[in-house]
Amino acid sequence: MRIGDNGFSPGFTERGVPTEPEFVFELRVCQWAERRWPPDCGRDSDTAVLVARQLGTKYRRWDTIVVEADRTALRERAAFGAEGLNSDLLGVVRNAPVDWAWYRDALPEPDYPWQYVREAVHDAADRELVETRRGERGRIELRRHQSYPEWVDRIVAIENKPDLDAAAARDLAPQLERDVALGLADEVWVATGREGDTVEPALLEDVPVEAGILTVDPAANGPAGDAVVEVSWNPRTLTPDEPGTRITDRPAGSGRDASAARFEYADPAWKAEKRREIAERAYGRGWRAYADTMRPDCRHFNLHTEAGDALPWCAEKACHQTGGECSGSCPEFSPEPPAWRQQEWPIDGGPGKAVKRLLDAQRRRRRPGP
Ligand code: SF4
After folding, report:
1. How far is residue 39's CA from residue 283's CA, in Å, rounded to a whole number?
2. In the chain, what is the greatest distance between 2 CA atoms, to the nearest angstrom?
3. How far apart are CA 56 and CA 65, in angstroms?
4. Contact 175, 207 (CB under 8 A)
5. 192 C-alpha to center of ligand 1: Å?
6. How far apart are CA 179 and CA 294, in angstroms?
7. 339: CA distance to ligand 1 center in Å?
8. Which atom of ligand 1 is closest in space to residue 312's alpha carbon?
9. Cα–Cα distance between 370 and 368 in angstroms, integer?
10. What are the tens digits of pLDDT across the range 41-98?
């Protein structure tokens, strides 16, 4: 059993899975994936890996997203800034012409008013993603600085269920079947806590065969002191560049009976667009952005360093706190004293700001630059 820097020793369930919040399990999976993805073979030197949490579409949000990127193309992508590009900005930078042109001639006809496209063009110019000028009759013209690269090779979606018992596996199965039918990701995995040396047999029975299974032992030390993760079932590679099926409704009863389910068609162009948006959000946010929704400005907020990476730790509660409990409504919340801002901390913020800067620096270190 590993004792953390703060003397923390996780308890264990009857299945031998540490009883830390799912949130912390998720951070450990992200940490592991950032260092060791893909699980069974070494990383190609031409491939970079970006990891993010809680990303997806309006229909589905995954716990962990792994983006495998072409390293050269990713460096070209860095020229478009450190922030992710949303769908509006992607529409502008991907279609901006080499030579000056009126934006309505250059960009595809939207299915919403042109006024919003014009705003996106201005936003893109403000971020120096494209150049703009006033042309004839005051028309806004644009041209590209450089072409936007197709930097995403593969997208892998991981669902984290640290204590996945048979009932939870049955509940999860329809969701995974939807993921497989849609085929937005190249692979779909479930990450679960280890039970001794075996995988809960119910998992293999209830989880679709197309989904992979990772077993995670957070208490074991990997080569760099991180969690030990093993492949218990290899996934099938899905086909994001082919049409997919969005299951919008399915009958209760047997999860395998799709006879009366309702479907929507997902065309490859829609899937390609969503994959780009997901990858851009992963690029901009990474997985350490959790501090943005927590209270690092609380005097009890610490970063508990494990395997070179920092996980949130509450000194007051002596545990890894969840994002939900670490909020302004936390009864133990206590703002950092103003004096902290005048001591060892830089003058542009106290420890709360320093925590965010540290996490941001770690994120940038992991992302290849131009
Ligand atoms: S006391 Fe509450 S707000 Fe402060 S670090 Fe702990 S969980 Fe977060």
Report:
1. 21
2. 74
3. 8
4. no
5. 27
6. 30
7. 19
8. 5
9. 7
10. 778 889 999 999 999 888 899 999 999 999 999 999 999 999 999 999 999 999 999 9
